[in-house]
Structure prediction request, 505 residues.
Amino acid sequence: MIRILINTGSNVLLIFVKLVITLIMTPVLVHNLGNYDYGIWEIIIAVIGYMGLLDIGMKPAIARFAAKYHASGDEQRLRELYSTSWVFLLLVGMLLCVFFVSWGLLWPHSLAESGEYTSRYSLLLIIVGAQLLVTFPGYVAESFLEGFQKYYLMNNITIFNSVVSSVILYHYIDPGNALVLLAVVNATGISIKYFAFIYILTRPEYGNMRPGTAYAVWQSFRETVGFGVKSLIQGIASRIEIGTDMIVIGYFLGPAMVPFYAIPSNLISYIRNIGWTLTHAFMPVFSAMDATNRVDDIRELYLGASRYVVAFLLPMCVGVTLVGSAFIGIWIGEEYQDEADIIILLLVVYTSLPFLNPFSTRYLTAIGKHGLLAKLYPVSALINIVASVILVHYWGIAGVALGSVIPVFMLVPIVLKHCCGYLGIPVSQYLVKSVVPSIAPTACMWYSVYTFRQYQPLDSYLRIIMAVLVGAVVYGILFYILGMKTGERKWINSRLARMLPWTVR
Prediction:
């Protein structure tokens, strides 16, 4: 449990560092890139996300098998897994590098506005190709460190990298170099990170792992891909749901319209990333418990951890609907605020509903039942993209957001029912133990912030911070009273007594 807390705390710290960087850097990027190039950058990021699917689901499979072989002390299988995966993903990276370099040399005008110079778009695509050449074999090292549960180590490197990259961009970016400098700094930072991961695994204390064709065997590849293909299907569908919106808006409404969706979407994405981060370290734990048939322990951990993740994310989702558009207006500019309210509301629904059952994908993957997700996610993604393409013609950007929401109402209940079935509990028990404790505190928090907003218009950062603090205090007190068990309150009281002994008589 201590390892879970350390890894999860480190993951959350990384997310908050990235959030701070985003809050500082987004206005800088928007104002230096302009709407068109900012839209192009968001589209390129979405395309890179799609390219990541060419790992054919190997990343989660590598992490799972690395954890399994590491726990059993099977060094031979570990080396075979590392070398086989490394050789395959290096070949994928090389092919993608050739694709993007060719695009940059032959068709850069496909990204440029009519009459614009294409040189910066050519450089952008070539840099992306070089980045992918390093990224794909780097995935192997990253997945191994995840399997070894060294999240804190990876996160320390990523945080350092992110801060240095942001400082460089902040000081040297200007409208003339913005797009190319952003691409260079981003690619350099990612490459350094993956080289560091690869080097760490060569150290004796981390397995002395080095790729070599002598250890690259077909059996290891077949085993990894056999498990990973289900994750691949799920990943393709998830990427379509997350990344297609930008492309649909860029295609039908033009790249200059993308920032009006991307800015609120990126804000909400941090809530989603926090949710993924809070649950990330649990997959190998569930897998180890399942391997030793600790069914009762899995059930207890699943219900207890779900209650706290829901308690953390639900008020964040509800709160951002109240302060999000006002924040964007102050943060970026009032012109980006006009449609932000409805987009934020729809994206919050899209984000929050799956996180009412936050450990579903981690648990199903750990016990080898993620074939269900491989069946459901493509249907959900298809509904998403069809609805978005249709609705963009009627309601523009808001229609695209609505298209994302529709399939969630189908997906979430089905996944919840199957998870509860594998856990051996009724759905009602899960909802009562893990979701219901947060509902009343969240409702009271919403009312308190809404009331505050009526008397104090959110026209400055100070008032937004005050509104957030009011909501946090109301929610914290009520969840402490209504959402926590007696033993949990006693544990918190004892820790407070140690930290603040003068408060206890």
